[in-house]
Write a structure and sequence with these properties.
293 residues; alpha+beta; TATA-Binding Protein; Endonuclease III, domain 1; Endonuclease Iii, domain 2; two-stranded antiparallel ribbon; 14% strand; globular; DNA-binding; Oxidative_DNA_repair_enzyme; DNA damage; DNA-(apurinic or apyrimidinic site) lyase; damaged DNA binding
Length: 293
DNA sequence: TTCCAGGAACGAG
DNA sequence: CTCGTTCCTGGA
């Protein structure tokens, strides 16, 4: 919360930011448009901009940007107004499992991503692992997104606008290795692109109403809806349950073979308004431990 | 060659 | 409502 901002040419440096670790932020399953560079920094494309982020000691260095974009985009994107210390303290109360989970993923932050991009990304994510999801999104962007610039010798493309996908065929979309999800992508592009639904207004609804609205879209089920709510709409009480979260919840809090609904109700009740943060720490912890492998 | 991981749709009960 | 099956891709 209390950090110092230093402006330099093409970069913004933050000093003294707590609870911020790049590998935790990008490798906890919330975001797919990043690449880890050989120097350990991360280059990402978000909100039509290319950003490189590095961490050195207690400095976070935003490269290829400026102070206007820091205030206009990245401060919100990285959830820098949120007091993660307070959230952690609340989640750890009477919960040794969460304490250990947070020890592993102490630097996680929930990114505020674009709603449309998050919708399509998580439709693509269903029934697949992270490397494949990244590849499909990258190919969709290269084919149908605008070239926004080059960085470190590589061209980077914005995520395609709904209108850019609107008149494509299922076969074209399938070339981006989306499989049977191609139809869902086109349906979603029609719903959003033709303004049958204003996805940028959904965050004004309460979490349950917003979820109901998202579930109208074909290819969006409970898990994908909760990912969109949490990773693009600031609904921090959403609790997306994928296989990893299912396993870690059953292992530490419940027992094997629990129906999803039971885990959902338990998580919502136990973690309350911070369920989304709990989900992120648990997801990261489950993968670190390799539970169920 | 076969097997497996991973969410939602869909039909049956 | 819950349950079981099917849909794809790529890596082991």
């Amino acid at each position: 919360m209390n950090y110092k901002i230093v402006e330099e040419k093409d970069k913004v440096i933050l000093e003294g930011v707590a609870d911020f670790e790049l590998s935790h932020i990008f490798e906890c399953g919330q975001c797919f448009r990043w690449n880890r560079e050989v120097d350990g920094s991360y280059t990402l494309v978000a909100h039509k901009k290319i950003l490189n982020v590095a961490k050195e000691k207690d400095q976070i260095i935003f490269n290829n940007t400026n102070i206007e974009d820091f205030y206009g985009i990245w401060k919100t994107y990285f959830d820098l107004g949120q007091d993660y210390g307070a959230i952690k303290k609340s989640l750890c109360k009477n919960d040794p499992v969460m304490e250990r989970a947070i020890e592993k993923g102490y630097g996680i932050r929930i990114l505020k991503q674009d709603e449309w991009e998050t919708l399509i990304s998580f439709i693509i994510s269903s029934n697949r692992g992270i490397p494949l999801i990244k590849k499909s999104i990258e190919e969709l962007s290269e084919k149908y997104g605008r070239l926004i610039g080059t960085y470190k010798g590589r061209g980077h493309y914005a995520f395609p606008e709904p209108e850019a996908l609107l008149n494509r065929t299922i076969e074209e979309i399938r070339l981006c290795r989306t499989g049977y999800r191609a139809k869902y992508i086109l349906d979603a592009a029609a719903i959003v692109g033709e303004r049958q639904m204003n996805i940028y207004n959904i965050h004004n609804l309460d979490t349950d109403m917003a979820r109901k609205e998202l579930l109208r879209i074909s290819g969006v089920g409970p898990k994908v809806a909760d990912c969109i709510l949490l990773f693009s709409m600031g609904k921090f009480d959403a609790f997306p349950i994928d296989v990893w979260v299912k396993r870690v919840m059953e292992y530490f809090y419940l027992q094997e073979d629990m129906p999803l609904k039971v885990i959902q109700d338990y998580g919502q009740k136990r973690f309350g308004e911070y369920a989304g943060f709990a989900q992120q720490y648990l997801f990261y912890y489950a993968r670190e431990l390799g539970i169920g492998k």
